Request: fold
Amino acid sequence: MVEKLSAYGLHIYDKVSYFWERGEAIVSWLLEHPDVKDWIAIDDDMFPDFKANGIIPHLVRTNFYKGGLLERHVKKAIKLLNG
Reply:
């Protein structure tokens, strides 16, 4: 995944380590990093708390069983980051 993103000039800044309640973990991370204005979440799963925590508009959802991060996901990530 890192190589695919790097090919487009994108880099992974950080990640959350919680498996459950991942939306809450993302919100918590964002509160700890108020300087971050534009962000995306790349995940191959849809957690129940994503909707309640406002993650869905920032989500690039991949599919582990269908190739993981594909070029179309990277293009979506760029589009989301550019507004």
About this structure: The chain has four helices and two strands.
